Automatic annotation (TrEMBL):
Pathway: Quinol/quinone metabolism; menaquinone biosynthesis. Pfam families: UbiA. One of its GO terms (molecular function) is prenyltransferase activity. It is found in: Membrane. This is Prenyltransferase. The keyword Membrane applies.
Length: 296
């Protein structure tokens, strides 16, 4: 029972996002002609998944301690897993798990620095800061709260993975990393709508609270359009190959999502279907671009 509870706090289904973003970084490295070994690719992917799991566990622990998860209306995409509410005795074990995962991420990062040099250190340090500070600090700073998720899964994860695989940074990888930057910012932003009233009660101050639901929805729409404009622009100027436009297939889901958000009568009551579509766009667009890069 305890083990099952701890596994739940990692939010396993959501860890696919780390794999999708890592796949994009691997494909960028492959298209740049990098010679990669399977074990290094696997370790990069494992490090990304562990980092994501660490954030999830620490968030679950913080929300359980603050009482937030007891106030939220849980959905399949927001409001926490409910694991620590069902098994409150697992709270200390979950906290230990979160710290253990953080230590493991740092250890993997130090190995990568040993392998590739200190050029990776600034990204790694910023990544650790984001992991530790997101829930207790950044959720109280509206604009940092908005961009922190995308910064972690975009420039930090894509560039960091690319550097480990190639031994250097790349303007192509940096520019492309802003595709998951916008997508993942939106993933967290839309998921904050159902929790906004509860978030106020525990001192959070994200964009929805600091401005208004209407303003936050406009930001969401802009961020939903941005990665597609960026992808077309990068292909148009020759930074990415034509096959990268395979990522546009995700518009099949993104367009209904945009329309659905545009016609919302009550922003505080986001239909589960829209939350699900947002997840699908996040998972599919980086993965499809990765496939396109491998086919090019």
């Amino acid at each position: 029972m305890m083990l099952a509870t701890l596994v739940q706090t990692t939010r396993p289904a959501f860890l696919l996002l780390a794999l999708s973003v890592t796949a994009l970084a691997v494909a960028l490295a492959f298209s740049a002609g990098a010679s990669m070994t399977w074990w290094l690719v696997a370790l990069v992917a494992l490090g990304a998944v562990i980092a994501h799991a660490c954030v999830n566990v620490l968030n679950e622990v913080d929300d359980a301690r603050s009482g937030l998860d007891a106030l939220t209306e849980r959905t399949p995409f927001s409001g926490g897993s409910g694991a620590l509410q069902a098994q409150p005795r697992a709270l200390n074990a979950a906290a230990a798990l979160g710290l253990g995962l953080l230590a493991l991420v740092i250890a993997i990062g130090l190995y990568f620095i040993y392998l590739r040099g200190w050029g990776l250190f600034p990204l790694g340090l910023l990544g650790v800061v984001l992991v530790v500070a997101y829930t207790p600090m950044l959720t109280r700073l509206p604009w940092l709260c908005l961009i922190a998720p995308g910064l972690g899964f975009g420039p930090l994860m894509v560039l960091g993975s690319y550097y480990v695989l190639t031994g250097s940074y790349s303007g192509v990888a940096f520019a492309t990393s802003f595709i998951p930057f916008f997508l993942v910012n939106n993933l967290l932003l839309l998921n904050q709508f159902p929790d906004a009233k509860a978030d106020v009660q525990v001192g959070r101050r994200h964009l929805i609270i600091a401005t208004s639901p209407a303003v936050a929805l406009r930001v969401f729409q802009a961020f939903l359009v941005a990665p597609y404009v960026l992808l077309v622009a990068l292909v148009g100027v020759g930074v990415l190959p034509l096959w990268a436009l395979l990522g546009l297939v995700s518009l099949v889901v993104a367009i209904p999502l945009y329309r659905g958000v545009s016609t919302l009568q009550s922003p505080s009551n986001i239909p589960h279907a829209l939350l699900g579509q947002n997840v699908v766009v996040n998972l599919s667009m980086p993965a499809l671009i990765a496939v396109g890069l491998l086919l090019a």
